[in-house]
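User: Please predict the structure of the protein below. I'd like the answer in structure-token form so I can feed it into my own downstream comparison script.

Assistant: Understood. Taking the following sequence of 175 residues as input:
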Amino acid sequence: MQSETACEDVRLAAQGDVEAFQRLYHLYIRQVYGLVLRLCADRTLADDVVQEVFVQLWQKLSSFRGEAKFSSWLYRVATNICLTEMRKRNRWFSRFLSQEHKAHEEFDEGEMDIHQLDRLIFKLPEQTRQVFVLHALQGESHQQIANWPGIAVGTSKAQFHRARKKLEESLQDGK
């Protein structure tokens, strides 16, 4: 799916071509933002993380070796930055609001135009949501997910099963 133009833009941007980088930005911004928003379920954080993703992308583009599709590499970079930022913020902010309260506060139906499934995904507990997004939506294997700190393959599988069950129940209940 990666076009020759995108491959050429990756090569040119890695050499410092700002216009090529701008084309890559416009090509991938929506997908990166969607991934990051689903992972963190917080629009303000997603805005900050996406900005950081593209800043780091500009700085690290020369390290892309082409062993995987550029989009896969970019999504991995975005995921790592998002998870790192979430861990940093969790250390600094106390969690006095429940996940459900935060989800309702952050994603009021009248305020935000978003699909029903996304609203349900945002209500999942943090680690469960992350595993679901990475496995079901991004196609990461449970082994790949387990390569990130603090999660085992079995935990990834259990979290994914829990997410699917909770989403199915919510969809059946019409929530």
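That's the full token string. The first helix runs from residue 4 to 14.
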